[in-house]
Amino acid sequence: MTALTLSTAAAPGLRADAIVIGVAKGTGSRSGDLVVAPGAEAVDKAYDGRLAGVLETLGASGAEGELTKLPAPAGFKAPIVVAVGLGAEPDAKSEDEGYTAEALRKAAGVAARALAGSKKAAFALPIDGPGAVGAIGEGVLLGAYSFDVYKENGKDAKARNGKAPLAEAALLGGKPRDAAHKAAVARALAVSEELNRARDLINMPPNDLNPAAFAAEAQAAAKEHGIKVQVLDEKALAKGGYGGILGVGGGSAAGPRLVKLSYTHPKADKHLAFVGKGITYDSGGISLKPAGHNETMKCDMSGAAAVFAAVVAAARLGLEVSVTGWLALAENMPSGNATRPGDVLRMYSGKTVEVLNTDAEGRLVLADALWAASQEKPDAIVDVATLTGAMMLALGSRTFGVMANDEAFRSTLFEAAEEVGEPAWPMPLPEHLRKGMESQVADLANMGERMGGGLVAGLFLREFVGEGITWAHLDIAGPAFNEGGPFGYTPKGGTGSAVRTLVRLAELTAAGDLG
Q1: DSSP state of 17
Q2: Measured on CA atoms in the order 323, 380, 482, 184, is the torsion positive or negative?
């Protein structure tokens, strides 16, 4: 993990491999011009105030994610300057002052990724308070992420194409003795390290991460961070009547698990429950996925990874809230023991479900875990799942859907996601779609109308939330796994989507803002 330090040193005299500065597209009277962002004054002065012109000559425009390298001025101890785009300059007439946290986060991530192989880089990006410190720190730590443990050159150093991730980032303008600045760095470290843990799990091949192996990872982290853990194996699940999890996992030689992680703060007066879909590999079961749809199905446990990471992060931050994480883990495989289309499962809640499609398996494992979570009467439940392709069709590959049985709570989650930089969108739960899940032989079916399939899945899950409990569902099918190139602080592969939203919800709840 990249080390973060706060530094009041001036850029020219700092020994580093690179100085990172921000540039932006001018607004107002400077519209169309390239603008050097605050924090880089000493660097601009060393270029006799002509840094913007030099960068423009090199093709820089200040666009978000753009990166330009140039030789450092004479007298600098760092050999290069790295200019990274921040997008549009804040409008002087706007009520919002300074660059947004997300703009800083993305710029820091782009630079950190580009500086793989470097021992130290100084980040002279705009810092106007602890919020900016935290955003830049997160961007660096998330942008520098690399998963290469299965590559020959990455077994020891976790190298990126032969280059180890950036070793140290000094945040210039950060105050080493300021309590708020130090707290911002500590939070960035806790959240980013746990989010990157989730990324590691998502990227791990399914032959090494089956339900039992995932449960073992959770047990090890729980022991390290003082979290109580309980693991139900096949025998315990059968004894308890967890028909949904057993039905999905029955076709695999690797048996299912239900993992409960409990973080309790002694001063907590609120309790949150997070429930994660953990299909460690999804073949579709008997309703086998077509060719071309199997290759990335190791990521179908991203919801459970997000829940796991969020609970550990809450514990590391010492938040005054109780958080229980439920990881519903199974491998969905076809075999003589697999659930068949037409089978009826008796769920943990006692309801029966006719399985019309074994590839609609995530809702079955979540249903059991949601009912288990409901028995503890938490103040709110949030489930997270790579649940439906329909949500990807609706919102694309970078935005997750938010559904809830309470509009105010849905708004709280949407705003929390927006605040931490995770694109999300509120989605409805239309009552007329419930009729499509009626079954002649069971209480309901696991499939309904094809149109609005993401909403149908949400309505199915709502059936297994205890009466009177506030609940929300995050369908992260789109942003959980990035099959394209890296962007901002987001790598190719597992992204850790929803971790920061869950952590932010826990922080708001601890502060008494849940309602």
Answers
A1: S
A2: negative
Q: What is the pLDDT of residue 154?
A: 57
State the Cα–Cα distance between residues 312 and 500, nearest whole angstrom: 12
- Annotated active-site residue in 277, 363, 410, 500: 363
- At 137, phi and psi to the nearest 5? -60, -45
CA of residue 104 relative to chain centroid, distance: 18
Q: Is the dihedral of CA 449, 455, 461, 465 positive or negative?
A: negative
Cα separation of 252 and 39, whole Å? 56
Lookup: tokens for 146: 């690399």
Q: Tell me the DSSP string of 82-112.
A: EEEEEEEPPPTTSSS-S--HHHHHHHHHHHH
CA atoms within 13 A on the CB side of 361: 36
Cβ–Cβ under 8 Å, residues 143 and 4? no
Helices marked H in 74-178 — which ranges?
101-114, 130-143
Q: According to the model, what pLDDT value does residue 258 have?
A: 99
Sign of the Cα pseudo-torsion (227, 233, 236, 237, in order): positive
- Closest C-alpha among 99, 95, 96 to residue 35: 99
Tokens (6 digits) for 178: 């300021």
Q: Is 197 an active-site residue?
A: no
pLDDT, position 160: 47
Query: In whole angstroms, what is the distance from residue 420 CA to residue 415 CA?
Result: 9
Q: Tell me the C-alpha to C-alpha distance, in Å, between residue 424 and each of 34, 43, 385.
A: 31, 38, 14
- Residue 363 is a catalytic residue: yes
Position 303: which residue type? G
Using CA atoms, how far residue 188 sits from 105, 172, 227, in Å, is 11, 16, 21
Q: Which of 289, 346, 462, 492 is catalytic?
A: 289
The CA R_g of the chain, rounded to the nearest whole Å, is 24
Rounded to whole angstroms, what are the CA distances from 379 to 158, 375, 471?
Answer: 41, 12, 9
* Residue for token pair 């001036």: 10
Nearest Cα neighbor of 329 from 229, 198, 212 is 212
Q: Tell me the three state secondary structure of residue 53.
A: helix
CB 325 within 8 A of CB 311: yes
Give residue 12's identity as a one-letter amino acid code: P
With a cut of 50, list the residues of the chain below it in pLDDT. 158-160
Whether residue 412 contacts residue 505, with contact meaning beta carbons closer than 8 Å, is answered with yes
Residue 157 burial (CB count, 10 A): 13
DSSP element (H, E) containing 170:
strand 168-172
For residue 515, the tally of other CB atoms under 10 A from its CB is 12
